[in-house]
Amino acid sequence: MILTKVELGPFRSINSAQICTIDPHITVLVGMNEAGKTVFLQGIHKACDALGIEKYDVTEDYPRKDLTRYNKVHPNNPEKAITLTYKPDEEEINRINRIYNTDIKFGFTYDISTNYKNGRTISITIDEKPIIEKIINTGNFTSDTIEKLKNSKSIRRIVDILDDLDLNESEQKTHQQLQTRIKKSNWENIASYEVFRELDALIPKTLYFSEYDILPGKLNIKDLARRCKLSESDPSQLTPKHKSILALLRMADVDINELSDIDGYEPLKAKIEGVSNSLTDQIMQFWKQNENIEVVVDIQSDSRDEAPYNDGANIYLRIKNSRHRVTTPFDKRSRGFIWFFSFLVWFDSVQHQINLEDEDKKLILLLDEPALALHALAQSDFLLYIDHLSENHQVIYTTHSPFMVHSDRLNQVRMVEDKDKVGTTITDNLSSTDPRTIFPLQAALGWDIAQNLFISKRNFLVEGPSELIYLKHMAAILEIKNRTSLNENITIVPTGGLDKITTFIALLGANNLNIAVLHDYDGKSNQKLDDLIRNKIIHPKSIKHTSMYTENKDKPSDIEDLLSTKIYIDYFNKTFEKSLPEKIKVSDLPSGSRIIERLNRHLKDRGISLRPSGGFNHYLVASTFGANPPKIIDEKTLTNFENLFTDINKLLDS
C-alpha cells in the first residue's frame, strides 16, 4: 500500500488546505528557507507516527492568527487537520477479494482524515452487491426466502428481512452468522468496515528524521542511565542525542545497565565497534567522497572534564582518517558522514522499536533537509541512497539544493512557497511559482541543458528521440522533393516525455526563447499545458498535438501515426523479423487510431513477447527508419509532415 495524496491544513503556516500528490517512490519538496517544507513533513508525521508518539496539538499546530477564534469551537466541533489518501497494491486487493468476496479493482483508493482531537474519519465505499449474491447463493435459503432477499441492497437489509421470517434450522444458522457479523460495527456498509479493518493494518506508518537526531561525540554513561530511569515518568529526559546513543547500544545488543560494569568495558567496546564497522561498510556503498574514514568507539573516564563527563565512564565516538592517521571527535568533523551514520542508526533502531516482523511492510520516510552538510557531488551520491531506500519504502524529503534533485525526474518535485496573506502553498505547477523557489530546479536542469539540449533562439520541443528521428528524416525527404520542410534555423529538442516538456516550458519560457511544442495526444487536454497557457507562459497556438496532422483529428495518436500504417508495419517487421513468427500484415491488426496501441494488442492477443514488460520498443523501430529511410513514400504521409512543418515554421519564424 502506498500514500497517493495529502490534503493538509489549516496547520501551522498552512492557513488553508493544500493538496499534494505523492509519488509512489520519491517526492521532493523544494522551497526557500522558512517556506513551510518542514511543516508539511511534520503534518504528515503527526497523522500516522510509527512510534505512536506524535499527535496533533491545537495550541502548537493550529495557525496562530486564527487560534483564538478556533478555540471557541474546538471542544464540540474539532476541525480536520489532514486527509491522507491510500492505494492498496494488487496483491493486497486480490487477498481482500478472496477473503470477503468483494470485487475491488486495482487502482482503488480510500481516505483517512484526522482532526485536531486526533479522531479519525474513514472515507471508503465498497460495493456489497457481490457479497450479497454470495450470501443468497450459499446461505442454504429456501426459494421463498431467496425471493424475499434478492432485491436487498445491503448486508444489514438482509438481516432485517431475515429477522421477520420464520426460518428453518440451516437458515437460522446463516442468520446468526450474519447477526454476529453486523454487530462488530455500527457502520451502515458492513463490507466497507470489514475491508477497512484489513487495510488499516497495512497502512504505511511515517518516520521523521531531521538534523537534530545525529549522534553526539561523547555521552556520560552514568547520566544516560539516570535519564533512562527518569524517562519512565518524564519522557523529556531523553533528548535526541541520548536516544541516538541508546539506539547504537541496542544495535550492539548492549543493555544500559551493562555499562556500569567497569570490568566489562573491553567486550562492550568490541560489540559497539562491530556494529560501527558494519554501519560504515553500509555507508561506503554510497559514500564516495572519502573512503578512508571509519568510526571508532572508546569507553573511559576523565575526572578532569566538565560535568557530567567527570563522573564515571563516558562513551566516545570518533572518526578515524586512515590516510592522515588521525582521529577527531565524531561531532566535530565530516558533518555529511555523521548525518549518514546517524541516519542508519536511527532507522535501524526505529525498525526495532516498531517490531517490523514483516520485512515487506512499507514505511513512509520523512527526511528533513537530508545531506544538507554534504559537498555538492556527495549530495548527488546521496540520491543513490534515497533510491535504495525507495525500493522498499516511500520517501518524502525536503531540500533547496539543486544537487538533491534528479533532473530527469522533475515530475517528483513539489514546490513549497510562503505567500503573503496566504501562507504556505504546495504545488507541482512550476508555471505559477516564484522564480526564487524554482531556482534549484533551474540549476538542476543546467547540466542536462548544457550537455544534451543545444538550445537556440527557435526551439521545437518534442517528447523523445523517436520524434527527433522521424522529423529529421522526413524534413530531409521533403526538402529533396522541393516541398515545405523544417527551416534550418529551428532546433528540435527531445525532452524525455510530456512531463519534461511542461517543465522546460515553465523554466525556459521566460528567457525570451521562441518555443513550439508537439506532443502525442491521448484524447483529452493536458492539465499542465493548460496551466501554462492560463498563466501566459506560452501561447496556445504554440502547442500542437499529433492528431492535428492525421485523418483522425480528435482521436488519440502518436508521432508514428503521421506515417501511413503500411510504412510503419514494414519497419516494424524489419526491426523484429528475428523475433516474429511471421510478418504482420495491416489486415491482422485490430481497429483503432494509434498504430502502437493496435500492435500492442495484436502482440498480446497472439501471445508474442518482444520484451519482458510486454509491447515493444518504439525507439528500435524509429532507429530502423533512421538507418534506412524509405525511398518511396505515399502522398498522405508526405502531406501530414508537410502540414506540420508549415505550422511550426510560421510559429517560430514570426
Automatic annotation (TrEMBL):
Q: Name one Pfam family in it.
A: AAA_15
Task: For this UniProt record, give its keywords in alphabetical order, as a comma-separated list.
Answer: Endonuclease, Hydrolase, Nuclease
GO MF terms held by the record: endonuclease activity
Lineage, top-rank taxon, reads: Bacteria
Annotated OLD protein-like TOPRIM domain ranges read 454-522
- The UniProt record lists the keyword Signal: no
According to the entry, every stretch annotated as the Endonuclease GajA/Old nuclease/RecF-like AAA domain falls at 1-405
Q: This protein is called what?
A: ATP-dependent endonuclease
Q: Which organism is it from?
A: Pectobacterium carotovorum subsp. carotovorum
